[in-house]
Amino acid sequence: MTKRKDDAMTDRDLDSPEEIAPVGDDTEGADSGVVREEDLVPGWLALLVLVLLLAVVGLGGFVLRGVFTQDEVASPTRYAIAEWQAKVDQNPDDVENLLGLGYAYQQNGEFDKALKEYDAVIERDAQNMAAMYNKGVVLLQLGETKQAEDTLWAVLKIAPDHALAAKALGQLYIEQKHYKSTLVAVDPVVKARPELADLQFLSGYANEQLDNKAIAIERYKAALKYAPDLIEARDGLARLGGGK
C-alpha cells in the first residue's frame, strides 16, 4: 500500500517549528506544557493550606468523618457510650465498665440510663462510693431530692470526709433553707479537711443565717485563706463587718 505524501513522516515533520510552541506564543495551544508565573501557587497560600490541613487533621476522626462524608458527626460522649457499652458487652459484671458506661450516659444527659448502670454497680458492690455519689447527683438533676439526700448520706456514712457528697448535701440544704442540716453535713468534713474552701463557705453562710456571727466570720476567713478569690466569702465578711 502506497502512503500519500501528506501521510508520510519525514525528517522535516519532526523538526517542523510549527509543532513546537515557543514560550510567549499567543496561539491557542501555547499554554500546553508551559508554566507561567501567574499559574504558580504563591508561597504564602501554599503555607496557609498546609496549616489548615494540619489543623483539621489535628481535630481527630470525628471532624474528618463529618467533613468528608454525609454521616452524622459523633459527639465525644456518644463515642464514649459506644466504647463503654462494648466493654460491658464483653464483661457484663465488671463494675468499672458499668461505672464508666453510667458516667458516659450521665455526661450525655441520659439520666435514666445512667441510674440503671449505677444501680447495676451497687448491686455488685454495695459500698461503691463512686456509683453512690454519682447516683445522688443524677437524682438531684432529676429533682428526686429525697432519694438524692438518702443516697448522699449513705456515702457519708461509709466515708464521713467525702467532700463531694458533703458539698452536694450542703448546697441542697441551703437551697431549702435548712441551715442546721447544712452544718450537720459539712462541718465534720470542714474539721477534717479545713483546706476545702467551698465547704468553709457553706458552713459560714449557714452560720450567718443562724445568727452565729463569730463562727460565720471565722469560716469566711478560712475560705479566703485557701481561696482568696472566693467572692461569696468576701461578700459574707463584708456583710458581717468582719474585715479581710
Describe the protein in words.
The protein has 244 residues and is mainly α. The protein has two domains: 60-159, Serine Threonine Protein Phosphatase 5, Tetratricopeptide repeat; 162-244, Tetratricopeptide repeat domain (Serine Threonine Protein Phosphatase 5, Tetratricopeptide repeat), CATH 1.25.40. The chain is built from 13 helices and no strands. Helix 5 runs antiparallel to helix 6 (111-124), helix 9 runs antiparallel to helix 10 and helix 12 packs antiparallel against helix 13. The longest helix is centred in the first third of the chain and has 16 residues, at 43-58. The termini are far apart. 29% of the residues are buried.
Residue ranges: pLDDT <50 for 5 or more in a row? 1-39, 48-72
* N- and C-termini, Cα separation: 114 Å
Helix and strand sequence: HHHHHHHHHHHHH
**Number of E-state strands:** 0
Total helical elements: 13
